[in-house]
Amino acid sequence: MLLLKTYRASFIFRVHPFCGDLAFAAASCGRVFLSFSSQAFYSVPAIFGVSFGIRKLYMKTLLKIFAWATLRMERGAKEKNHQLYKPYTNGIIAKDPTSLEEEIKEIRRSGSSKALDNTPEFELSDIFYFCRKGMETIMDDEVTKRFSAEELESWNLLSRTNYNFQYISLRLTVLWGLGVLIRYCFLLPLRIALAFTGISLLVVGTTVVGYLPNGRFKEFMSKHVHLMCYRICVRALTAIITYHDRENRPRNGGICVANHTSPIDVIILASDGYYAMVGQVHGGLMGVIQRAMVKACPHVWFERSEVKDRHLVAKRLTEHVQDKSKLPILIFPEGTCINNTSVMMFKKGSFEIGATVYPVAIKYDPQFGDAFWNSSKYGMVTYLLRMMTSWAIVCSVWYLPPMTREADEDAVQFANRVKSAIARQGGLVDLLWDGGLKREKVKDTFKEEQQKLYSKMIVGNHEDRSRS
Amino acid sequence: MGAAHSASEEVRELEGKTGFSSDQIEQLHRRFKQLSGDQPTIRKENFNNVPDLELNPIRSKIVRAFFDNRNLRKGPSGLADEINFEDFLTIMSYFRPIDTSMDEEQVELSRKEKLRFLFHMYDSDSDGRITLEEYRNVVEELLSGNPHIEKESARSIADGAMMEAASVCMGQMEPDQVYEGITFEDFLKIWQGIDIETKMHVRFLNMETMALCH
């Protein structure tokens, strides 16, 4: 990295004496040449799956710089005698872990000075519990927190994650400016060129492989074309991925299930294993890619009309899974992008099929670039641009041991079991809530739970009394 | 965050009026902005964005309490259409924990304020009395989620509780004496000597200790 930087700097310096169009043309040629040569530098290892460890060094250097930057900001804030804005991801309220029954009993006990055998059926004080709970949720609730990007405690030189602008000194501003220059003028064109190469190679490669006769050679070529192109895309994003427990990688005839944070999840998983994708048929560039991919090996693409029909979807997935020669399917059961601090409810469809499930946990490190796609805030293109102008995408992938549905479990319980395993491994919070809450309201069935519990308590007392 | 000076002045003013610390005010301000969608005021509809609140059986009464003019100290009755941040903090201040540094008089005052807040929740027509109808209304709402309880049983439960309250407040009643309803003084009488302070507050996490542990 450093070598390339100095090369570029000296090149432009030499061009400087020549003025006008010549300089501009030379500089842009130089840039293109440079990006191609560095592309070769990147792509060749990608083809063979080898890494030089340069990205790890890059990561370490960046971390040191971030720590320094945060220290400067804190010093700046102290000088001005202000409080730094500190994000609290654990919430601001100490919530009581006691249950409804315990609390109400306690309130009544402390309240009632009357004889205890005369247990009253309803007291004015019962309203305390619900009132307080209501206030607590208004102040701070678990769910809406999950749908906005995670907040950082140290600054990573990206203005989009900084809320303490007024505490930046001159030195920090210069550093930040340098960071912007590097990210937008150097890293971005490089990455875009790489991404372009990767995608075009994928389309061309899979189309060519599609013409080969069916057989082992075709499969071999198809697998390696896919892997190579995904690896190039991974380098296009400067994604530094650590894979754990690779012996548990999904096998043919299984379903691979993972938590969903962004569309990049697909690239990350597919660059380490050979999967069959599931999804809707799109138009435009995505459609071209999809049609090309399906020529080389069988993916499962659904027409828009077919997506609504759950039985049809289940049938096609079952057929695919039962054919042992076909690849494992990659599915994201949450159904939407969550901000990677928790795992939300898994939709039960993929768990009803009855195949072996290989859970995978993906956890991003938000210090280098936040990978969460807030689809209500950013469109796909804006999102990709943000990804490509971050420092890097650092994440860990854990392959968990395979799970199958047990005899006495139904699909929902199985889904929850898998979800807990993923949440536990990735260090994420396991929530019961539905990812669909990003866009819709709470289902009525949930509303009634608390009320049923409370009323059971009251009516229980009533019945006891009438019996005695 | 705008000009640092005027913001901190405002914060100090709010600190004095509501008793929250500046850290807590900042946190609540962020929450306010989240609920209002970056608007300067909140309306009733904004509370629909809190999914956990849907589970609460007295949800509508809680939301109503935010807009109640009596709680906002803006009048003897009626509902406001929208509230700003200061009003939001005023309502939240009813749930502040009892400060150990407060003297007896302040503790008594704070307790009275909390009980008054609850009283307003029951007394929906602002006539200063909790009538049998209003009491029934609260019990029905609390039990509304359960389809197995009929309206009749909910009513009888409310009636029984009301009779008990009447006996506490009025002692033995003549057969033709009508009990108008629970006034605020009677309400206070019911709670005399009973510790409600620990149940009617929300505890904020200590901000300083959290800042130190990264």
TrEMBL record, chain A:
Pfam families, alphabetized: Acyltransferase (PF01553)
GO cellular component, one term: endoplasmic reticulum
Protein's cellular compartments: Membrane
Biological process terms in GO annotation: acyl-CoA metabolic process; phosphatidylcholine biosynthetic process; triglyceride biosynthetic process
Keyword Transport: no
Record keywords: Acyltransferase, Lipid biosynthesis, Lipid metabolism, Membrane, Phospholipid biosynthesis, Phospholipid metabolism, Transferase, Transmembrane, Transmembrane helix
Phospholipid/glycerol acyltransferase domain: residues covered: 254-365
Transmembrane annotation, as ranges: 40-58, 168-186, 192-213
Pathway in which the depicted protein is active: Lipid metabolism; Phospholipid metabolism
Record flagged with keyword Transcription regulation: no
Top-level taxon in the UniProt lineage: Eukaryota
GO MF term set: glycerol-3-phosphate O-acyltransferase activity; lysophosphatidic acid acyltransferase activity
Family listed: Belongs to the 1-acyl-sn-glycerol-3-phosphate acyltransferase family.
Name used for this protein in its record: Glycerol-3-phosphate acyltransferase 4
Organism in which the protein naturally occurs: Rhinopithecus bieti
Lineage: Eukaryota, Metazoa, Chordata, Craniata, Vertebrata
Name of the gene: GPAT4
Automatic annotation (TrEMBL), chain B:
Membrane topology listed for this record: Lipid-anchor
Compositionally biased spans, kind Basic and acidic residues: 7-16
UniProt cross-references to PROSITE patterns, sorted A to Z: EF_HAND_1, EF_HAND_2
Alphabetic keyword roster: Calcium, Cell membrane, Cell projection, Cytoplasm, Differentiation, Lipoprotein, Membrane, Metal-binding, Myristate, Nucleus, Protein kinase inhibitor
Major localization listed first in the record, in broad terms: other
GO BP term (any one): protein localization to plasma membrane
Keyword Translocase: no
Molecular function terms, GO-annotated: calcium ion binding; magnesium ion binding; phosphatase inhibitor activity; protein homodimerization activity; protein kinase inhibitor activity
GO cellular component: cytosol; lamellipodium; nucleoplasm; ruffle membrane
Residue numbers spanned by region Disordered: 1-20
Compartments where located: Cell projection, Lamellipodium; Cell projection, Ruffle membrane; Cytoplasm; Membrane
Span of domain EF-hand: 110-145
UniProt family annotation: Belongs to the calcineurin regulatory subunit family. CHP subfamily.
Function: Functions as an integral cofactor in cell pH regulation by controlling plasma membrane-type Na(+)/H(+) exchange activity. Promotes the maturation, transport, cell surface stability and exchange activity of SLC9A1/NHE1 at the plasma membrane. Promotes the induction of hematopoietic stem cell differentiation toward megakaryocytic lineage. Essential for the coupling of ERK cascade activation with the expression of ETS family genes in megakaryocytic differentiation. Also involved in granulocytic differentiation in a ERK-dependent manner. Inhibits the phosphatase activity of calcineurin.
Subunit record text: Monomer. Homodimer; disulfide-linked. Interacts with SLC9A1/NHE1; the interaction enables an optimal Na(+)/H(+) exchange activity.
Protein name: Calcineurin B homologous protein 3
